[in-house]
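hey can u check if this looks right to u? its 215 residues, i copy pasted from the old doc so theres a chance i mangled smth
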Amino acid sequence: TAIMCLLCPTTPLSQSEMNGKYGSSYAQFANNENKFDITMCQAPCRAPCCWLGSMMCLCPVQIYMRHRALNHVHPGSGWSHYICCQGYYGGCCCLQPGNMCESTCPHCCMCLEAFCCTGPAVSATSIIMRNEYGLGLDNDDIRLIRCTNCLMIFALCLSCVARCTECEGDDQVAQVCNILADVVFCCVSGCMTAQTHHEIKLRERINAPERHTMT
Protein backbone atom coordinates (compact mmCIF):
# COMPACT_ATOMS: atom_id res chain seq x y z
CA THR A 1 0.00 0.00 0.00
CA ALA A 2 2.80 2.39 0.86
CA ILE A 3 4.52 1.68 -2.47
CA MET A 4 1.30 2.43 -4.36
CA CYS A 5 0.96 5.71 -2.48
CA LEU A 6 4.38 6.71 -3.83
CA LEU A 7 3.99 5.50 -7.41
CA CYS A 8 0.44 6.42 -8.38
CA PRO A 9 -0.35 10.02 -9.45
CA THR A 10 -2.46 12.36 -7.33
CA THR A 11 -3.58 14.76 -10.04
CA PRO A 12 -7.24 15.84 -9.77
CA LEU A 13 -9.85 13.58 -11.29
CA SER A 14 -10.15 14.07 -15.03
CA GLN A 15 -13.49 14.44 -16.76
CA SER A 16 -13.26 10.91 -18.13
CA GLU A 17 -12.72 9.54 -14.62
CA MET A 18 -15.91 11.24 -13.48
CA ASN A 19 -17.99 9.49 -16.11
CA GLY A 20 -19.86 6.25 -15.65
CA LYS A 21 -21.75 4.98 -12.63
CA TYR A 22 -18.67 4.52 -10.45
CA GLY A 23 -16.92 7.72 -11.47
CA SER A 24 -19.98 9.92 -11.14
CA SER A 25 -20.62 8.64 -7.61
CA TYR A 26 -17.24 10.08 -6.54
CA ALA A 27 -17.25 13.17 -8.77
CA GLN A 28 -19.61 15.02 -6.43
CA PHE A 29 -16.96 14.91 -3.69
CA ALA A 30 -13.98 15.94 -5.82
CA ASN A 31 -13.90 19.57 -4.65
CA ASN A 32 -15.01 19.14 -1.04
CA GLU A 33 -12.47 20.59 1.39
CA ASN A 34 -13.40 18.44 4.39
CA LYS A 35 -11.66 15.06 4.52
CA PHE A 36 -11.74 11.84 6.51
CA ASP A 37 -9.77 12.06 9.75
CA ILE A 38 -7.24 9.53 8.41
CA THR A 39 -6.24 8.82 4.83
CA MET A 40 -6.45 5.39 3.28
CA CYS A 41 -2.66 5.02 3.38
CA GLN A 42 -2.70 5.84 7.09
CA ALA A 43 -5.42 3.30 7.86
CA PRO A 44 -3.15 0.22 8.25
CA CYS A 45 -1.15 2.00 10.98
CA ARG A 46 -3.94 3.98 12.61
CA ALA A 47 -6.54 1.20 12.56
CA PRO A 48 -4.54 -2.03 12.10
CA CYS A 49 -7.06 -4.42 13.65
CA CYS A 50 -9.90 -3.21 11.46
CA TRP A 51 -7.65 -3.22 8.39
CA LEU A 52 -6.46 -6.79 8.96
CA GLY A 53 -9.91 -8.03 9.92
CA SER A 54 -11.42 -6.46 6.82
CA MET A 55 -8.91 -8.16 4.55
CA MET A 56 -9.37 -11.56 6.20
CA CYS A 57 -13.18 -11.42 6.27
CA LEU A 58 -13.87 -8.79 3.63
CA CYS A 59 -17.43 -9.73 2.70
CA PRO A 60 -18.87 -10.38 6.19
CA VAL A 61 -17.26 -7.17 7.47
CA GLN A 62 -19.08 -5.19 4.78
CA ILE A 63 -22.42 -6.39 6.13
CA TYR A 64 -21.49 -5.18 9.60
CA MET A 65 -20.10 -1.89 8.29
CA ARG A 66 -23.20 -1.06 6.26
CA HIS A 67 -25.41 -1.61 9.30
CA ARG A 68 -23.03 0.47 11.41
CA ALA A 69 -22.95 3.34 8.91
CA LEU A 70 -26.71 3.38 8.34
CA ASN A 71 -27.40 3.43 12.06
CA HIS A 72 -24.81 6.13 12.58
CA VAL A 73 -26.62 8.38 10.12
CA HIS A 74 -30.10 7.19 11.19
CA PRO A 75 -29.76 6.03 14.83
CA GLY A 76 -31.87 3.03 15.73
CA SER A 77 -33.13 2.53 12.18
CA GLY A 78 -31.79 -1.00 11.76
CA TRP A 79 -31.93 -1.92 8.08
CA SER A 80 -34.90 0.29 7.22
CA HIS A 81 -32.77 2.67 5.12
CA TYR A 82 -30.93 -0.06 3.25
CA ILE A 83 -31.10 -0.47 -0.51
CA CYS A 84 -28.61 -2.21 -2.78
CA CYS A 85 -25.36 -0.19 -2.82
CA GLN A 86 -27.53 2.60 -1.36
CA GLY A 87 -28.53 3.42 -4.93
CA TYR A 88 -25.21 5.12 -5.70
CA TYR A 89 -24.45 3.05 -8.79
CA GLY A 90 -27.85 2.72 -10.38
CA GLY A 91 -29.09 -0.62 -11.65
CA CYS A 92 -28.97 -2.94 -14.62
CA CYS A 93 -32.05 -4.02 -16.58
CA CYS A 94 -34.55 -5.45 -14.10
CA LEU A 95 -32.11 -5.22 -11.18
CA GLN A 96 -32.79 -1.79 -9.75
CA PRO A 97 -31.88 -0.59 -6.23
CA GLY A 98 -34.96 -0.24 -4.08
CA ASN A 99 -36.90 -2.80 -6.13
CA MET A 100 -35.02 -5.93 -5.11
CA CYS A 101 -36.97 -6.89 -1.97
CA GLU A 102 -34.61 -4.87 0.25
CA SER A 103 -37.47 -3.75 2.49
CA THR A 104 -38.75 -7.28 3.11
CA CYS A 105 -35.44 -9.14 3.19
CA PRO A 106 -32.59 -6.68 3.77
CA HIS A 107 -30.27 -9.23 5.35
CA CYS A 108 -30.29 -11.54 2.34
CA CYS A 109 -29.95 -8.63 -0.07
CA MET A 110 -27.00 -7.22 1.84
CA CYS A 111 -25.34 -10.64 1.91
CA LEU A 112 -25.71 -10.92 -1.85
CA GLU A 113 -24.34 -7.41 -2.31
CA ALA A 114 -21.35 -8.05 -0.04
CA PHE A 115 -20.40 -11.35 -1.67
CA CYS A 116 -21.30 -10.61 -5.31
CA CYS A 117 -20.50 -6.88 -5.56
CA THR A 118 -17.82 -6.45 -2.92
CA GLY A 119 -16.11 -3.42 -4.44
CA PRO A 120 -19.28 -1.33 -4.80
CA ALA A 121 -20.37 -2.49 -1.34
CA VAL A 122 -17.17 -1.14 0.23
CA SER A 123 -17.43 2.13 -1.67
CA ALA A 124 -21.14 2.61 -0.93
CA THR A 125 -20.55 2.44 2.82
CA SER A 126 -17.76 4.99 2.50
CA ILE A 127 -19.99 7.27 0.43
CA ILE A 128 -22.64 7.21 3.17
CA MET A 129 -20.15 8.99 5.43
CA ARG A 130 -19.00 11.30 2.64
CA ASN A 131 -22.58 12.34 2.00
CA GLU A 132 -23.37 12.85 5.66
CA TYR A 133 -20.37 15.05 6.45
CA GLY A 134 -19.42 16.44 3.03
CA LEU A 135 -16.07 14.63 2.97
CA GLY A 136 -13.96 15.03 -0.14
CA LEU A 137 -11.33 12.91 -1.85
CA ASP A 138 -7.80 13.13 -0.49
CA ASN A 139 -4.64 12.26 -2.40
CA ASP A 140 -4.53 8.74 -1.01
CA ASP A 141 -8.08 8.04 -2.15
CA ILE A 142 -7.18 9.07 -5.68
CA ARG A 143 -3.88 7.15 -5.67
CA LEU A 144 -5.23 3.86 -4.39
CA ILE A 145 -8.45 3.82 -6.39
CA ARG A 146 -6.53 4.58 -9.58
CA CYS A 147 -3.92 1.94 -8.83
CA THR A 148 -6.52 -0.72 -8.07
CA ASN A 149 -8.48 0.03 -11.23
CA CYS A 150 -5.33 -0.01 -13.37
CA LEU A 151 -4.19 -3.35 -11.95
CA MET A 152 -7.60 -4.92 -12.46
CA ILE A 153 -7.75 -3.74 -16.08
CA PHE A 154 -4.16 -4.85 -16.71
CA ALA A 155 -4.85 -8.30 -15.24
CA LEU A 156 -8.00 -8.62 -17.37
CA CYS A 157 -6.09 -7.68 -20.52
CA LEU A 158 -3.35 -10.20 -19.77
CA SER A 159 -5.95 -12.91 -19.18
CA CYS A 160 -7.54 -12.15 -22.56
CA VAL A 161 -4.15 -12.22 -24.28
CA ALA A 162 -3.28 -15.52 -22.60
CA ARG A 163 -6.49 -17.08 -23.89
CA CYS A 164 -5.97 -15.81 -27.43
CA THR A 165 -2.30 -16.73 -27.81
CA GLU A 166 -0.21 -19.83 -27.33
CA CYS A 167 2.97 -18.20 -26.02
CA GLU A 168 4.82 -20.27 -23.47
CA GLY A 169 4.35 -18.98 -19.94
CA ASP A 170 1.65 -16.43 -20.72
CA ASP A 171 -0.91 -18.30 -18.60
CA GLN A 172 1.41 -18.18 -15.60
CA VAL A 173 2.07 -14.46 -16.05
CA ALA A 174 -1.66 -13.76 -16.30
CA GLN A 175 -2.31 -15.84 -13.19
CA VAL A 176 0.34 -13.97 -11.21
CA CYS A 177 -1.12 -10.63 -12.29
CA ASN A 178 -4.62 -11.76 -11.33
CA ILE A 179 -3.40 -12.80 -7.89
CA LEU A 180 -1.58 -9.48 -7.48
CA ALA A 181 -4.69 -7.55 -8.50
CA ASP A 182 -6.80 -9.53 -6.01
CA VAL A 183 -4.33 -8.92 -3.18
CA VAL A 184 -4.20 -5.20 -3.94
CA PHE A 185 -8.00 -5.07 -4.10
CA CYS A 186 -8.26 -6.69 -0.67
CA CYS A 187 -5.64 -4.33 0.78
CA VAL A 188 -7.28 -1.21 -0.63
CA SER A 189 -10.76 -2.39 0.39
CA GLY A 190 -9.39 -2.96 3.88
CA CYS A 191 -7.95 0.55 3.88
CA MET A 192 -11.27 2.09 2.86
CA THR A 193 -13.18 0.01 5.39
CA ALA A 194 -10.79 0.92 8.22
CA GLN A 195 -10.95 4.58 7.21
CA THR A 196 -14.75 4.54 7.34
CA HIS A 197 -14.84 2.65 10.64
CA HIS A 198 -12.40 5.09 12.21
CA GLU A 199 -14.50 8.03 11.02
CA ILE A 200 -17.69 6.55 12.46
CA LYS A 201 -16.05 6.01 15.86
CA LEU A 202 -14.60 9.52 15.81
CA ARG A 203 -17.92 11.15 14.90
CA GLU A 204 -19.74 9.15 17.56
CA ARG A 205 -17.28 10.33 20.21
CA ILE A 206 -17.70 13.93 19.07
CA ASN A 207 -21.50 13.72 18.96
CA ALA A 208 -21.90 11.73 22.18
CA PRO A 209 -21.84 14.76 24.55
CA GLU A 210 -24.40 16.56 22.39
CA ARG A 211 -26.78 13.59 22.42
CA HIS A 212 -26.30 13.12 26.16
CA THR A 213 -27.08 16.79 26.79
CA MET A 214 -30.20 16.65 24.63
CA THR A 215 -31.53 13.63 26.51
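Confidence is low (pLDDT under 50) at residues 211-215.
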